Amino acid sequence: MTAAKEAFVKAVKAKNAKDKCWALLALAKVHLNKMELNDANEVAEKALAELAQTPDDMLNGAIMLTIAKANGDLYRFQDALEFADEAMSRFQAAGSKVGEAAALNAIARINLKRERRQDALKVGKQALAMFRDCSERNGEAEALHIMARANLSLKKFEEALRVGNQLVGLFEGQDLKRHGAALFFIADIRAAMEEYEEAMDIARRAVEMFEMQDKKGQAAATRRLAQACFAKGEDTDGWMYVMEALELYREVGCVKCEVEMLNDVASAHFRTGTHKEGQGIAEEGARLARESGLRKQYADMLQSQARSMLDLDTVLGNAAEHQLNWKARLAAKDALNTYQDIGDLRGQMKSQNTLALAFMSYGNALEGRAKAKAAMDISKIMNDKGSEGANLLLVAQSRFHDNREEASRLASQAQRLIKEGGDQVVIREAQDVVDVLRDDGKQEKKKKDKAPQQAQSSKIDLTLDYDFGKTRAAYFHGFISRSTR
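^ thats the sequence. predicted structure below, dont judge the formating
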C-alpha cells in the first residue's frame, strides 16, 4: 500500500498521466487483496477516468479486469461480466493472449460465485488452454484452482482431486510457496470429502516441506493441520497446532496472519464453551486489527465476539446483570458498519443475522424481524439459498407469538430454501425447528395436560417463552448460530 501511494504521488508530481494510472491500478489491487471492495472499485474507476487522457488498450484492459473482479466480489454480477467482456476486447486489441485468458478466468470466477458451475467449468477450460499455449504458469494455476473449486461445488470430488493434483504437479520442486498452497487446497478437498486422516497427512507433509525453509509457510501448514484435527474431533492436537501456528506467525511478524489466527483461537474457545478465554483473545485480535488497519479482520473478530456473547447470554439465562446482549449488539453494529464500508456482503448478512438474534432474545420481535429480513435480502443478492432460508426461519420465529399460522407458512418456505442449500446437517436441524412451529396445537395440549413437575425439552421451553412474549429462542438460536456462522 505504501509503495503504491508513493508511486502515485511521484506520478502526480511528474504530471505523467500513464504512470498515475498504473499507480492507481496498483492501489486498487492492494485494496482488492485486502477485501476492501468498495475502495478497490472506486480507485480503479478513477484510474479508468484518468486513462481517457492517454488511451492504452493493455492498461485499459488491466483496469477493467480489476473492476470486474471487485464487482464480482460485490455480487454485482451483471456489471462484473460487462467489465470482464470489455477487458477481453481491450486485451484482444492489444494482442495480449495472456490478458485475454485472464479475462476468461475472471468470467469463470464470476460464474462460480453466482453458482453457474457448469459455465464456470466451460470458461475455465478455455482460459486454461490459452494459458498453457502462452506457457503462463501462474495463470494456469488460477484456472486449475477455479475448475477444481467448481467440481468441488458440484460434489465431483474425484474430478476436483484430479484437477487439484495437476495444480500440485505444476509447482512441485519448483516453487515452494505455490506448491504448499496447492497442497493446502488438496487438504481442503479431502476434508470436504470427510477424509480427515488424509487431510491431516497432507497438512503434515506441507509442514515438513516448509520446516527450516519458510516459517510463514510452516505456520500456514500448521494452521491447516489444526483445522483438520478439529474437523476429525482431535481437539487436543488441534489446540497444540493452533498455538504453534500462532507463535510462528508472531516470529515472522505477519500481523494479518496473527490476527486471523487469533480469530481461529477465539472461535475455538467459543465452540468449546470457554467464552471468557475466547473473549480475551478476541479483544486482543480486534485491537491489533484496528491498529493495523485490517478492517475485514477487525469486523470478523467483532462478529465472532458478538455471536459468543449471545451464546453465553443464552447459557446464563439472559442474565441482565452481565449486559451481554447489549455488548453483543454493540459489537455486531460495529462489525456491520465496517462490512458496509468495505463492501463485504456476506459479512453484512452475518452481522444482520446476529442483530436479529440479539433483538429477538432481548424481547424486541419487531426489530429482530426487520434485521432478519435485511439479512435475508442480502442472502438473495448473493444467491445463497441456505442462508436465505435460515434467515427466513428467524422471521418465522418472530411471528410465532402473534400469528402461528403465518409462522408455520414461513417456516415451510424456509425449509424448502434450506434444502436447496444442500447442507445435510442444517437440513436435519431445520426440520426440528419447523416441527416446533407446526406443532402448536400439540404443545398447547401438553401445557394443559402435563404435570408441571415433568421435565421440559428445550423445544417446549422455547414455546413457553414465546407464549410469555419473550423471543429468547434458545433452541432456535443454536440452530441459526451453526447454520450462518
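The longest helix spans residues 295-315.
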